[in-house]
């Protein structure tokens, strides 16, 4: 291994937690926009009666809508154009790669729900690649609640900082 | 193993911008020529999270309105770029009384994008 990426400062991050509450509820137009983007035509996402007849309380949003949206974030985009949560990890000489996602859906989000997202670090580990380069593997746990503090979804999101 | 009808999806700048807007993800890697050149990235990169959305869409279309995605787990093997198309193939690997386990694979041509996504589907009582 040529470089140590897992510094005490980064290990300290594992003790932190951040929470974001959307300033406004999920709207029909947000869901319509998302459905258009993924080519989703199912009427359960636009017709309340049809959704109720399909066993929902009211109009649901597609399951992964909440794990993909940054609409609960506030403030202007950063230099890279993004508005997503950041841990402030700056590791020169590395490239950032998405590792994967594990979603657990407990119940649907609905139009009208207000998203609360809670970010913690589930796991940080340093490994060595087959090319003898350091890899810092970080798994975020993002918990999504509604306005009644009901946990509706967990998102284990793994990202990798790869030594160049 | 029972198969599920494959789902195909093509990415171009227009639908990538649409997705970026709808998810509030405006990272320059998805559209900005200068950012791509500075970072030696050949073309705008498709947001990987869309693959989970498309797997979910494929499965819920197959299993009907009373089905629910209980969980999904996947790792990214390679990136997809603007102008490319993907195909999702899924098979049922286990059918229990209360949930169904599905294994999905996403290919972009011969390139593996997601190799072994595991999803579980449950059902409401109709």
How is this structure best summarized?
Chain A is α+β, with helices and mostly antiparallel strands and 164 residues long. Chain A is built from four helices and five strands.
Overview of this structure, please?
The complex is a heterodimer of chains A (164) and B (126). The radius of gyration of chain A is 18 Å and the shape is elongated. In chain A, 16% of the residues lie in helices and 34% in strands. A 5-stranded antiparallel beta sheet of chain A has the order 1-3-4-5-2, with no helix packed on it. Chain A has a single domain, classed as Hotdog Thioesterase (Thiol Ester Dehydrase, Chain A, Roll). Chain B is α+β, with helices and mostly antiparallel strands and 126 residues long. Chain B is built from 3 helices and 5 strands; from the N terminus they run βαααββββ. Chain B has a 5-stranded antiparallel beta sheet, with helices on one face. The mean pLDDT of chain B is 95. Strand 2 of chain A pairs antiparallel with strand 2 of chain B.
Helix-residue proportion of chain B? 10-25%
- Total DSSP E strands of chain B: 5
- Residue windows where pLDDT falls under 50 for at least 5 positions of chain B: none
Radius of gyration of chain B: 16 Å
Silhouette of chain B:
elongated
The computed structural class of chain B is: alpha+beta
| Most strands sheet of chain A | 5 strands, antiparallel
For the largest beta-sheet of chain B, the strand count, sense and barrel status come to: 5 strands, antiparallel
Give, in spatial order, the strands making up the sheet with the most strands of chain A: 1-3-4-5-2
- Helix content range of chain A: 10-25%
Kindly state the mean pLDDT of chain A as a whole number?
Answer: 93
CATH superfamily of chain A: Hotdog Thioesterase
Level-2 CATH architecture of chain B: Roll
Q: Which helices and strands occur, and which strands form pairs?
A:
The complex is a heterodimer of chains A (164) and B (126).
Chain A: H1 8-13, E1 17-21, H2 28-38, H3 48-53, H4 65-68, E2 94-105, E3 116-128, E4 134-145, E5 151-163
Antiparallel strand pairs in A: 1-3, 2-5, 3-4, 4-5
Chain B: E1 2-10, H1 13-22, H2 33-38, H3 49-63, E2 67-75, E3 85-95, E4 99-108, E5 111-123
Antiparallel strand pairs in B: 1-3, 2-5, 3-4, 4-5
């Amino acid at each position: 291994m040529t470089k140590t990426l897992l510094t005490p400062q980064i290990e300290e991050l594992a003790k932190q937690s951040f929470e974001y509450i959307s300033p406004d509820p999920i709207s029909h137009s947000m869901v319509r926009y998302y459905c258009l983007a993924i080519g989703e035509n199912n009427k359960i996402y636009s017709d309340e009666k049809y959704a109720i007849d399909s066993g929902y309380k009211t109009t649901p949003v597609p399951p992964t809508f909440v794990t993909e949206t940054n609409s609960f974030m506030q403030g202007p985009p950063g230099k890279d154009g993004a508005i997503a949560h950041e841990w402030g990890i700056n590791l020169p000489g590395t490239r950032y790669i998405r590792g994967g996602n594990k979603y657990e859906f407990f119940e649907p989000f609905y139009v009208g729900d207000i998203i609360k997202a809670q970010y913690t670090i589930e796991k940080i580990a340093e490994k060595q690649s087959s090319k003898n380069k350091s890899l810092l593997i970080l798994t975020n746990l993002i918990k999504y609640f509604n306005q009644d503090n009901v946990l509706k979804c967990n998102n284990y999101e793994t990202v990798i900082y790869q030594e160049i | 193993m029972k198969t599920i009808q494959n789902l195909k999806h093509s990415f171009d700048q227009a639908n990538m911008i649409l997705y970026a807007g709808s998810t509030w993800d405006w990272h320059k890697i998805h559209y900005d020529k200068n950012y791509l050149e500075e970072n030696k990235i050949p073309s705008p990169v498709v947001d990987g999270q869309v693959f989970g959305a498309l797997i979910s869409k494929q499965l819920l279309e197959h299993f009907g309105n009373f089905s629910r995605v209980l969980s999904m787990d996947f790792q990214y093997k390679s990136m997809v770029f603007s102008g490319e198309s993907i195909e999702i193939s899924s098979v049922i690997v286990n059918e229990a009384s209360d949930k169904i386990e599905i294994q999905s694979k996403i290919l972009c041509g011969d390139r593996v994008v997601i190799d072994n996504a595991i999803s579980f589907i449950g059902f409401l009582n109709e």
